[in-house]
Design goal:
The protein is mainly β. It is built from two helices and 21 strands. The strands form five sheets. It has a five-stranded mixed beta sheet with strand order 6-10-9-8-7, with no helix packed on it. A four-stranded antiparallel beta sheet has the order 1-21-20-19, with no helix packed on it. A four-stranded antiparallel beta sheet has the order 2-3-4-5, with no helix packed on it. It is globular.
């Protein structure tokens, strides 16, 4: 009888594991085939060979790239080279990506940049916020951008218990931001378990020097984050749920759910989807970000190349 019970429990456990595995494959779209949609005027950006996970563009056309992201289990074409921040002036006739120098005293050897965001203060000071994973930990770095010298002055490193697995960031002040945690846990095994069991414990955190709090939660894997031009709405991409959440920003900086879009036209009553570019891996692998400025499209990737297109 005992052996029969043990065998029954084993069968139930295996069935549950099998169901979770198939559900995870479906959430990851592991068997999906991508049909390429090309643009006529595109070229790979020279100097970006090992990923450009995030891109942010200033109103004057200066584009920032975070490059060289490394994670356990993530392929890298430059495993021994630290990450960096590159810049491209999109107003130039033939824009080139140049690496920005960073002030002395900042630990460049362990620099592992992920999501980035810029903020322009009332006095026109430009701040660059960078999600950093030194030795696979989680920090947010704040830099001041010195345009004349193509230089980043490191101002502050932020660590907090509510930022255990930071993915992306959107700056809303000189030391204020919203950040996504793509997992609740920081431990790699617990992260895997959280994803496998589809616990929906990922969240969005608001940080300021005076207050740090969770302002939205219940995501499968909160990933990219951005803000509307009028600063009233925050958009959060839940990558495993294949949804974009539209959240309304409150006076106390909390976020309230407005609607969920399946990659649709923001805030319209009848959202539509237009695929501008798609590739089956022959040009780009693991695309993670797209940004547009004045008829120019930039596409970045987790660990591969970056693409510049004229729309």
């Amino acid at each position: 009888m005992g052996r029969l019970l043990a065998l029954s429990l084993l069968g139930v456990a295996l069935a549950l594991l099998g169901e979770r595995f198939l559900a995870l494959r479906n959430r990851l779209k592991a068997s999906r085939e991508v049909e390429s949609i090309d643009l006529p005027n595109c070229h790979l950006i020279k100097g970006i060979e090992a990923g450009s996970e995030d891109i942010d563009i200033l109103p004057n056309g200066l584009a920032f790239f975070s490059v060289g992201l490394k994670f356990p289990g993530l392929h890298s074409f430059a495993p021994n080279k630290p990450g960096g921040i590159l810049m491209m002036d999109l107003k130039e006739e033939k824009p080139r990506a140049l690496e920005l120098r960073i002030s002395r005293g900042f630990d460049l050897a362990s620099f592992n940049p992920h999501g980035i965001s810029t903020f322009i203060d009332n006095d026109d000071t430009v701040y660059l916020f960078v999600v950093n994973h030194p030795e696979f930990k989680n920090t947010v770095e704040i830099f001041k951008f010195e345009e004349e010298e193509n230089f980043l002055l490191h101002l502050k490193t932020i660590r907090h218990e509510l930022l255990p697995s930071v993915n992306d960031i959107i700056a809303v002040g000189p030391a204020h931001f919203y950040a996504t945690n793509d997992h609740y846990f920081s431990d790699p095994f617990l992260k895997y378990l959280e994803t496998y069991l589809s616990l929906h414990w990922a969240n969005v955190v608001y940080y300021s020097p005076n207050e740090v709090k969770v302002v939205a939660e219940g995501f499968d894997s909160a990933n990219g984050i951005n803000i509307s031009p009028d600063k009233k709405y925050v958009y959060v991409a839940d990558i495993l749920a294949h949804e974009i959440h539209v959240l309304e920003k409150q006076p106390n900086m909390n976020l309230t759910q407005l609607k969920v879009l399946h990659i649709q036209n923001i805030l319209s009553k009848k959202p539509t989807v237009t695929t501008v570019y798609a590739n089956n891996g022959s040009v780009l692998q693991g695309s993670s970000v797209a940004s547009v400025y004045d008829g120019k499209l930039l596409i970045g990737t987790l660990y591969h190349r970056a693409l510049f297109c004229e729309l």
